[in-house]
Design goal:
The complex is a heterodimer.
Chain A: E1 2-4, H1 5-19, E2 23-27, H2 43-47, E3 52-54, H3 59-71, E4 75-79, H4 90-97, H5 100-103, E5 113-118, H6 133-137, E6 143-145, H7 150-162, E7 167-172, E8 179-181, E9 195-198, E10 203-207, H8 211-222, E11 229-233, E12 236-238, H9 242-252, E13 255-262, H10 267-279, E14 288-292, H11 303-306, H12 310-318, H13 328-336
Parallel strand pairs in A: 2-3, 2-4, 4-5, 5-7, 6-7, 10-11, 10-13, 13-14
Antiparallel strand pairs in A: 1-8, 6-12, 9-11
Helix pairs in contact in A: 1-7, 3-4, 8-12, 9-10
Chain B: H1 5-16, H2 56-81, H3 95-103, E1 110-112, H4 118-123, H5 128-131, H6 133-136, H7 145-148, H8 159-173, E2 180-185, H9 192-203, E3 208-214, E4 217-218, E5 221-222, E6 243-247, H10 251-269, E7 272-277, H11 296-303, H12 307-317, H13 323-345, H14 365-387
Helix pairs in contact in B: 2-3, 2-12, 2-13, 3-10, 8-9
Classes of the chains: A alpha/beta, B alpha/beta.
Chain lengths: ~325, ~400
């Protein structure tokens, strides 16, 4: 049956609320309105104001409140309205949510899910389109998850709510209302497992969240060029699945990592480094990255220049030394130096 | 109910006049002067019906724990000088606040301390070695917070204020009558999380007592740089939270005010804010030089308001404390310090491999790899030692 990621997330929240009395859902506008993206639509009416409620407009407060609720034995699921509006909560997330288990040698755990609608491609004005996953992935103690399919949206969110550790659940905004055939409730692969979305022999495209559909489209387009590309969906940035990605790249010998976030010091840089460390002798070409530009997220009329699209991915694939020639881009710089 | 003509006549002059509506902020405001039940020499002031004096046996216990608390504090400072603690933020001079606050709550309540509340935690009955684990440096939090209903001592300022609101709301939601007591200092009231915490607690009517120890300095920065408010207790009114200020060196008043605040919260009336005016007799920590920002005369003036001497004078005058009892408490304090000294002189054992145990409930594959790497490094180091 055709459904959307937004509906899958909504169903996952409803099913979690029904399955476990300890689950509470709160944030800004999540009650009567059902959230600005309607992810919590109908939950307050169905489960009552005690279990799905609006809070004061204060993100540090929302996450800090969740810490206290978790200490009392509840399972809070909070919504940050937009990526960049989660920044006020960063101290609570980095200093408390991520560390409480470790600080107390396991005596206290705070199984909180922090839902963050993230990334761009929706024509949003500034501060509404940041890809903030690297901040969280760089913080030990957090799990960082980002679905790219409707079924994963349901399954990963249910698993996040049941997980004993805090999870930052990154929802790609531009995929919210894309429709796909899915039967809910779905259970897909668990945390820590990347998934091959499209098998291929010639090169591996590694992507997550909003970049996965781009990778799949690029792989389809690459058939015309005669390349058979494999697409791996990372799904859970933390915990990270080295095994699946390494196995794929060892098979194909070539790898392009795709992310929407600015490339410098990003998750894609980490993935490229890990692939290079593990697959060096299987590689026929350097691991390349296709990422957002290293700029503040641009205004809506300019965002398409920033976003890594199919053409940029295919350009990178073309540079994977198919004829055993060095990449001309780096070769030119090498001779100049 | 029928309205008699007399009642109408009585009411009419008032209804004709443009009546001033009652000021809704008025009941939330603190007294203009800090509540005080003993003067600075320990002589009782006129009793107050709004803050009844705690029972005498509770005051004797307050005295005992304050003496033990100060001895603990002195010992911790000495251990720091001997290199046994990495750092120690003393609360000497704040004994009435540290001990009075924890005596006002039950064991089943939750306490949210800052790094300066070591004395409060030992007064709550937590093992002093576990309290000092953070400062000794063998782990971050030495006690099990769920067992002693006490959050880890909080170093990121004011962040615990929001946790207290959440914990209190969660407990009430689950039908328990737990109160959360959140400690905070004067400087941290400038942090956003103080305001977000008290606002969340007020909106959700969460049973929290916010207890501000205004000891006049945030490291070196004086109160005048934190606020232009008449007193920190006035910060409650903006959030709809009733507030009080108290002489923080008057142990009887601190306990009386906090007892009322806790009762207010437990009865389902929402949070309460208390500001205690006190003074940090020691530098911020052993690493600080307080002579750079405050003069000795100021410190001496506060020495005259010593909370322990004040309570002792009062209890002796009431005939419920004598030389023998004072000596007995002093002896207990010495024994407590001696035991702490002995135990702190044992070098704690630390296990590098335990670094990976509690990052997540189950270590990630990457952490397992890193643990194996460290295990190999340790084995290699042991082999080298063996060869040498």
């Amino acid at each position: 049956m055709a459904t959307t990621m937004a509906k899958a997330l909504n169903t996952a929240l409803a099913d979690a609320l029904a399955a476990d009395d300890r689950v509470v859902v709160f944030g800004e506008d999540v009650g009567q309105l059902g959230g600005v993206f309607r992810i919590t639509d109908g939950l307050q009416a169905r489960f009552g104001e005690d279990r799905c409620f609006d809070t004061p407009l204060a993100e540090a407060g929302i996450v800090g409140f969740a810490v206290g609720l978790a200490m009392s034995g509840l399972r809070p699921v909070v919504e940050m309205q937009f990526d960049a509006f989660a920044y006020p909560a960063f101290e609570q997330i980095a200093s408390h949510v991520a560390k409480l288990r470790n600080r107390t040698r396991g005596a206290l755990s705070v199984p909180i899910v922090i839902r963050v609608p993230y990334a761009g491609g929706i024509g949003g004005v500034e501060h509404h389109c940041d890809s903030s996953e690297a901040y969280y992935a760089h913080t030990p103690g957090l799990k960082v998850v980002t679905p790219a399919t409707v079924e994963d949206a349901y399954s990963l969110l249910r698993e996040a709510i049941d997980d004993p550790d805090p999870v930052v659940f990154m929802e790609p905004k531009k995929l919210y209302f894309a429709s796909a055939d899915a039967s809910l409730p779905a259970r897909t692969e668990p945390f820590g497992r990347a998934v091959v979305r499209r098998p291929g022999r010639d090169a591996t495209l590694v992507a997550y969240g909003p970049a996965v559909p781009v990778a799949l489209e690029a792989a389809e387009a690459a058939r015309e060029e005669g390349w058979d590309l494999e697409v791996v969906d990372v799904r859970t940035i933390v915990p990270f699945d080295d095994a699946t990605i390494t196995a794929s790249v060892r098979r194909t010998g070539r790898c392009v990592v795709i992310q929407e976030a600015p490339g410098f010091a990003g998750v894609g840089a980490e993935i490229a480094a890990r692939v290079q460390e593990r697959c060096f002798h299987a590689l026929h070409a350097p691991v390349l990255r296709v990422a957002g530009l290293d700029i503040p997220y641009p205004a809506p009329m300019l965002e398409h220049t920033h976003l890594p699209g199919v053409d940029r991915v295919l350009d990178a694939v073309a540079r994977l030394q198919w004829d055993d020639q060095p990449d001309p881009r780096w070769a030119a710089q090498g001779s100049a130096a | 109910m029928t309205t008699t003509p007399q009642a109408v006549r009585r009411a009419s002059p008032r209804t004709r006049r443009a009546a001033t509506p009652p000021d809704p902020a008025r009941p939330l405001l603190p007294d203009a002067e800090p509540v005080r039940l003993l003067d600075k020499s320990g002589t009782p002031l006129p009793a107050r019906t709004d803050y009844p004096e705690p029972p005498v046996e509770v005051l004797r216990e307050l005295y005992r724990r304050m003496v033990l608390g100060r001895r603990f504090d002195t010992q911790a400072t000495a251990l720091t000088k001997q290199g046994r603690l990495a750092v120690y933020p003393s609360s000497r001079g704040q004994e009435a606040c540290q001990v009075g606050a924890v005596l006002a709550v039950r064991d089943s309540d939750w306490v949210f301390p800052t790094y300066r509340e070591s004395m409060a935690l030992v007064a709550r009955g937590i093992d002093p070695v576990e309290v000092l684990t953070l400062l000794r440096g063998d782990w971050h939090c030495g006690y099990d917070p769920t067992e002693v209903r006490t959050a880890p001592q909080c170093t990121p300022l004011a962040t615990q204020c929001v946790h207290a609101a959440g914990l209190a709301h969660g407990e009430a939601y689950q039908g328990r009558d737990t109160v959360a007591l959140a400690f905070i200092g004067d400087g941290a009231t400038s942090e956003g999380d103080f305001h977000e915490g008290i606002n969340f607690a007020a909106v959700f009517k969460a049973p929290v007592v916010y207890f501000v120890q205004n000891n006049r300095y945030a490291i070196s920065v004086p109160l005048s740089r934190q606020t232009a408010a008449p007193s920190l207790a006035y910060k409650g009114v903006g959030y709809g939270v009733p507030s009080e200020q108290v002489d923080g060196n008057d142990p009887v008043a601190v306990l009386a005010v906090l007892t009322r605040a806790v009762a207010h919260a437990r009865a389902g009336n929402g949070p309460f804010l208390v500001e205690a005016h006190t003074y940090r007799m020691e530098p911020h920590t052993n690493a600080d030089d307080a002579t750079r920002y405050r003069d000795g005369a100021e410190v001496d003036a506060w020495r005259d308001r010593d909370p322990i001497a004040r309570l002792e004078t009062y209890l002796r005058a009431r005939g419920v404390l004598d030389d023998a009892a004072v000596a007995e408490v002093a002896e207990q304090a010495e024994a407590y310090a001696a035991d702490l000294r002995t135990r702190m002189n044992d070098q704690p054992s630390v296990d590098p491999l335990s670094l990976f145990d509690h990052v997540y409930a189950q270590p990630t594959p990457q952490l397992i790899e890193q643990r194996e790497q460290v295990r190999a490094e340790l084995a290699a180091a042991r082999d080298e030692e063996g060869d040498a």
